[in-house]
Structure formats: C-alpha cells, structure tokens
Amino acid sequence: MTVINPSAVVADGTAASNLTIGFIGFGAMAQGIATGMVRHGGIDGAQIVAYDINRQTLDAATSVLGATAAASAADVVDECEVVILAVKPNVIESVVEPIKAKLAEPGTVVISIAWGWDFAKYETILAPGTHHLSIVPNTPIAVGKGVVVAERLSNLTPDEIGTFTRLFEPISLVEFLDTATLYQAGTVTSCAPAYAAMFIEALSDAAVKHGIPRAAAYRLVSAMVEGTGALQVATGQIPAAMKDAVCSPGGATIRGVQRLEERGFRGDVMSAVDAVMGD
C-alpha cells in the first residue's frame, strides 16, 4: 500500500506510446477521457480498447476514435495494461466479480472513475494484490483541459504512478488528495462544470439582452471564463485579489459585484456543493 507524495511523483513508468488502455464502460465520461487522450494526449486510437453493454453506442464511439470495440470486459483486461473501470457505481461489484482474477494479474493497473469507490472499498471486492487507484475526472478532459482528483492512498508502484501521470497529466491537472477529501474535491471539480455552464449561459443571456449576437456571446463569455481560470493557475493569485484588480473605485464593475453580493451569489454556490454532499 502506498501513500503518494505528489511532490515526489516522477513521470517514469511505461511510455504512453507503448501502452494499451482499456475501458470497461464507455459512457460519456469514459469517452471524454479517451477523446482527450487521442486528440490532446499523444495516444493513438489503436491503443484504446473499450467494452460497453450498449453495443450500438460502443461501435459508434470507438469508430470515431479509431479504437477497438471489445466483445466483453474480460477481453479488455486480456488486451490492456491499463484498465479503466467506468461503469455506474451500483454495478461495480457485478462487473468486477467475473474478471477480478484477471485484474490481479501482474502488469495490470486498474484505474476507477466510479463515484464513491475508494481504495478501502475496492479492497473488499478485488482479488488480493490487485494494483488499483481511484480518481474523479471531469468533462473538460475531452479537450485536454480537465481536472483529475486522485486518491493519495493506493497500492500502485512508483513506476505505475508514473504511467498514470504520463497518461493523465497531458490532458488534465492531476491533484492527489487524502481519501477523506477525495469526493469533496470531486464534487467541486466534476459537478461544478454544470454550475459553470449555468453561469456562462446566464452571462451570455445578459449579453444578448444588450444586443450581442448569441453565438458571439457564447464565444466571448466562454473565453473569458477559460482565461480567468488560466490566469489564476498561472499567477497563484487569490480570486479576491483578481476581483479587486478589476474593480475601480466608484466604477461599474464594483456595482455589479455589489448586486451579486446582495443576491447571495457566493452563498448560493456554496449551498450547491452542500446539497451534493448531503449537508
């Protein structure tokens, strides 16, 4: 068992170009990861093998990427060094049971994106010695702008952690966190794209109200959101300082900030996260 020190992670391990990556479950999130890998992560579509119970969806999605549609979950494990479990959380046990001996074979790395399935929970159903890591990705990974929250506790070797980072760092910010905060952080990063999209929609509606064509409004607002986030990551500035930098004394921006404060903007955002966490 390994507790990962993020500062000590070095991207050694197997070169991404030499890997075959498998997906068991190929829904929207799995397709997003695969798309990011192929279009932005230096992975060839031929390196990807996927299985899903919905054969029509599987065939269409793999065809677009040049990936292979497998006949079964067992076939995915047989052909791949990295296996990504991407089925719904409520069917993890039934999916894993028939293939758990294969998942435990030397040279296989299991990465799970199933919500709520952390290291300790997997240890109750996987065969002893299975090398596995639980992560929470988000949808922007499809365009190489994702966030992946990874559980610090795992039993991957240093080389296997290196393989994982080689695959995911080109398409996402990878953050290792303790188990206790894995899904809290996952809520912020994986659910919040919905909230960000609502903000983009609302701000675009305001732009349309004031005469800007809708297509232009979407482009302008989305680029502004992306740029603001990139500026914060690049500079490390706290968001309050970034807000203050735009708010001139007696200016228009601070009047808009006041209105957002009066309407409870920040409290509403925090309440949305509380609702997801069941608080």
Automatic annotation (TrEMBL):
Catalysis performed (reactions): L-proline + NADP(+) = (S)-1-pyrroline-5-carboxylate + NADPH + 2 H(+); L-proline + NAD(+) = (S)-1-pyrroline-5-carboxylate + NADH + 2 H(+)
Keyword Cytoplasm: yes
Pathway the protein contributes to: Amino-acid biosynthesis; L-proline biosynthesis; L-proline from L-glutamate 5-semialdehyde: step 1/1
A GO term, aspect molecular function: pyrroline-5-carboxylate reductase activity
Annotated EC: 1.5.1.2
Source species, domain of life: Bacteria
Pfam families, per the entry: F420_oxidored (PF03807), P5CR_dimer (PF14748)
One biological process term in Gene Ontology: L-proline biosynthetic process
UniProt key word Hydrolase: no
GO cellular component assignments: cytoplasm
Subcellular location: Cytoplasm
Entry's family note: Belongs to the pyrroline-5-carboxylate reductase family.
Residue sites binding NADP(+) per the record: I24, G25, F26, G27, A28, M29, A86, V87, K88, P89
Role, per record: Catalyzes the reduction of 1-pyrroline-5-carboxylate (PCA) to L-proline.
Entries under InterPro entries matching the protein: 6-PGluconate_DH-like_C_sf, NAD(P)-bd_dom_sf, P5C_Rdtase_cat_N, P5CR_dimer, Pyrroline-COOH_reductase
Keyword list, A-Z: Amino-acid biosynthesis, Cytoplasm, NADP, Oxidoreductase, Proline biosynthesis
Domain (Pyrroline-5-carboxylate reductase catalytic N-terminal): residue spans on this chain: 20-114
Record protein name field: Pyrroline-5-carboxylate reductase
